[in-house]
Amino acid sequence: MKLSYQVYDLPLKHTFTIAHQSRDVQDTLIVKLEEDDIYGLGESTTNPFYGMTIENMIACLEEFRPVVESGNWETPEQLWELGRGIFRNNPFAQCAVDLAAWDFFTKKQGKKLYEYLNLDPRKIPTTNFTIGIDTVEKMVAKMKEVDWPIYKIKLGTEQDLEIVRELRKHTNSIFRIDANCAWTAEQAIRNSEELVKLGVEFMEQPLGKDDLEGMKEVFKYSKLPAMADESCIVESDVKKCHGLFHAINVKLVKAGGITPGLRMIHEAKSLGMKTMVGCMTESSVGITAIAHIAPLLDYVDMDGAMLLAKDPARGVTITPDKVTFPDGPGIGADLL
Ligand SMILES: [Mg+2]
């Protein structure tokens, strides 16, 4: 078994701005696990909010190299357990290895990942298309560029309601909003009253990630369901979010890959919470992995590769009514 990796700078179509960051290029790390003629690919982006850099991800991968290359593991779950200590503070790097392990493992079994997991690809919810923060005019223009049935609108500005009111004039599509921690409980409750009338389906992470007291109020009085993103990172957070949020947004990079991601989804469902898997601005390597587990979900946010000016990989293709997987077994994405 050989581990290798490559760094890519993914240029974005538009500067992507959310409440706590802005970027034109997304750095990403693509990991390859290879043995004989079979290889698996995985990916993780960097992320300043979570302190994840190419350097610290590579340092963890190098520490893990003897473990993964020893070949003393058979399943991705076993490999994940072997990495528990090394990747404790770097779930992003663990995600890249875990996705590569799932791709490799299911290719070896001759099955697509969704087949191995007994999931029905016809049950994949339609992904939303994300509109980053910009001037109101530019947000309208970005929305008109891509005609889509569900938009996720990034908020956290001085004119949040104005943005949604203006966008609503130009489409009947479903809206979701993501405040990325920018609001107070009072603002969230007040905003929810108008947002529900504007056809918003739910609000993602209205408050700061640790404002659990505020979330109690929001959970009780908001007119919209609330979804945890920054408040729900690893497995132990699922329980903490129960009774404070109606839904969780599991991101494979935050969780440390598909292995813990699946456990989080099942736990949230058993607690009666709705589930979404969200993305960063990954290439088609990371996005295709999300698509395979999407039949499990109520909502999915896997538009990352659609926001790129240039995708170094090919994988799943997504249209408003159809998700088409690459031919062949595994996750199946490949570098161009
Ligand atoms: Mg979010």
TrEMBL record:
Residues given in the record as Mg(2+) binding sites: 178, 204, 229
Q: Which InterPro entries match?
A: DgoD-like, Dipeptide_epimerase, Enolase-like_C_sf, Enolase-like_N, Enolase_C-like, Mandel_Rmase/mucon_lact_enz_CS, Mandelate_racemase_C, Mandelate_racemase_N_dom
Q: One biological-process term from Gene Ontology?
A: amino acid catabolic process
Look at the named UniProt entry and state the broad enzyme category this protein falls under: isomerase
Which residues lie in coiled coils? none
Query: Domain Mandelate racemase/muconate lactonizing enzyme C-terminal spans what residues?
Result: 136-225
What EC number(s) does its UniProt record assign? 5.1.1.-
MF (Gene Ontology): magnesium ion binding; racemase and epimerase activity, acting on amino acids and derivatives
UniProt keywords (A-Z) are: Isomerase, Magnesium, Metal-binding
Q: Sorted alphabetically, which Gene3D superfamilies does this protein's record hold?
A: Enolase-like C-terminal domain, Enolase-like, N-terminal domain
Quote the record's cofactor note.
Binds 1 Mg(2+) ion per subunit.
Q: Which residues form the active site?
A: 154, 251
Which co-factors does it depend on?
A: Mg(2+)
Q: Which family does it belong to?
A: Belongs to the mandelate racemase/muconate lactonizing enzyme family.
Q: What is this protein called?
A: Dipeptide epimerase
What organism is the protein native to?
Algoriphagus aquaeductus
